[in-house]
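Bumping my old thread because nobody answered last time. Still need a sequence for this structure:
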């Protein structure tokens, strides 16, 4: 929801000071733009870090919007694999709707924390490789959750193809490179401050991600772009052709 504000705005001392400083800087327009893009990136990162100290985890907009988008797409028959579940903060609210949720992660400490924090009859956590788990498990999964996973991978296409045939539906969440023009300005100017996390390999724009999924035989059913995040509900195209899934 947006806001309505008075047409006449109160004078902002900091804004006036920065504009005066801007006029005094002995830099050309291109250098000033690059400097301001770097400063915007730095303060955006600081603001995001402070937001996680200000909001409770359950109330943070990243969590509430993800929950609103995803929870209605699950039902009592859904069996979910939450890959890279970390400490299970998403897994636990998926378990409110799904028949069963399995969280897997390579981080053994995170898995131990998840087991300690969240205990439900339809929720399990495992410290192992997800493909290894799928090969040994007798569970018939319907949904794969990939929340902030693909952007960390060197070979996301090979990764998706290795998992595709095990699932009917996919939930994919990752940063949105197209959240504003600023990232494209950074790209044009060759800025090094262009990532949302320092261990990301790819910052996907919307078209690039769609092309990746197309190549993997995964169809986007619904998409949401909010708060700088891409949220996609997808289905296995093989199942779609056969009329399976939703």
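Sorry it took so long. Here it is:
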């Amino acid at each position: 929801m947006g806001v309505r504000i008075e047409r006449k705005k109160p004078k902002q001392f900091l804004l006036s000071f920065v504009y005066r400083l801007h006029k005094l800087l002995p830099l050309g327009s291109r250098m000033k733009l690059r400097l301001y893009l770097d400063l915007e990136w730095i303060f955006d990162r600081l603001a995001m870090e402070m937001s996680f100290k200000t909001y409770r985890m359950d109330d943070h907009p990243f969590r509430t919007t993800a929950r609103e988008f995803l929870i209605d797409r699950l039902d009592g028959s859904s069996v979910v694999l939450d890959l890279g579940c970390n400490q299970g903060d998403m897994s636990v609210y998926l378990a409110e709707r799904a028949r069963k949720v399995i969280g897997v992660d390579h981080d053994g400490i995170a898995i131990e924390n998840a087991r300690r924090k969240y205990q439900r009859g339809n929720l399990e956590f495992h410290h192992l490789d997800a493909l290894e788990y799928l090969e040994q498990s007798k569970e018939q999964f319907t949904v794969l959750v990939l929340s902030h996973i693909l952007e960390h991978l060197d070979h996301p296409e090979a990764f998706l193809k290795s998992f595709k045939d095990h699932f009917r539906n996919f939930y994919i969440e990752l940063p949105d490179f197209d959240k504003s023009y600023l990232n494209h300005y950074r790209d044009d100017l060759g800025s090094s401050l262009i990532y949302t996390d320092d261990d990301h390999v790819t910052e996907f724009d919307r078209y690039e991600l769609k092309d990746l999924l197309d190549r993997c035989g995964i169809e986007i059913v619904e998409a949401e772009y909010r708060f700088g995040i891409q949220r996609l509900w997808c289905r296995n195209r093989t199942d779609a052709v056969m009329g399976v899934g939703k």
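The longest strand covers residues 218-226. Let me know if any region looks off to you.
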